[in-house]
Amino acid sequence: MMLRDQLEDAVADVAADLATLTTASRRQGLGIRRRRRALAAVGAVAAVTVLAVTGYALRPGTPEIHVSDGPPSTGTEADLSGESAPITAAGTAAALQDAVASVAHGTFGRFQGDVSGGEALAALLFTPLGSNGPAGQVMVNLQPLLRSVGGPPYTCESFMTDCSVRELPDGDTLRTYHDDGDSEFGAASKRLVAEVLSPDRHLRVVVFALNTNPWAGGEYQTEPVLALHGLSEIARQPWWSTTELPEEYVEAGRDLDLYPG
Known about the structure:
The chain has about 260 residues and is α+β, with helices and mostly antiparallel strands. The chain has one domain (about 5-255). Helices cover about 15% and strands about 25% of the residues. The chain has helices spanning about 5-10, 25, 90-100, 145-150, 230-235, 245-255; strands at about 85, 105-115, 120-130, 135-145, 160-165, 175-180, 190-200, 205-210, 245. The strands form two sheets. It has a seven-stranded antiparallel beta sheet with strand order 2-3-4-8-7-6-5. The protein has a two-stranded antiparallel sheet with strand order 1-9. The longest helix is centred in the middle third of the chain and has 13 residues, at about 90-100.
């Protein structure tokens, strides 16, 4: 069964393999960061939640978001050669890991990815440094823009709680919102979403973080494992695409053990 099918069922069992990125690319002089992560305090299985075509609401863990007018400040772009390669499921997961690691410290595990139907998805579990709570799920969904939400101007939709829309200098739109108390995750669940709508790239990037995962046995972090600022920086990376990624990520994905789809 493909990851897309598992997403549609809202359940995706993931092997408890804590495989992480290796240093192969560094040895070849590409300079991309590789962080060896071990996931702590997670149950025996994990799942990827449904992300509908309309996008699934996630909540802000911070009252206000500050995003610079300049390019994303995560630092990942400076480590890349500028060369691209066809997108892969594992490469998307590797890109998500590196983007998360650029905005937060912690451990990673249970990677999944899928590239099909003109879209790409990746999910992982992330435990913030010093956390005593469960790992939270982080996911990215790359969609063709017009097929998912149509053309500009982009505004908040009815399901988006505490929604904020900001026009960026490059013509993209940054939209953030949240969704707490989801029935799937319990009354204490919190979910934050940041998405970038990019007409020039014909691309919609949706990134979310939870304060738990569906198999955490009712345990929660106080807030989602990433804040809105970090989610926004991840979503704004200029190299996201439904068709290609920086070659460093595609190469790193070859060393990333994904749960078989």
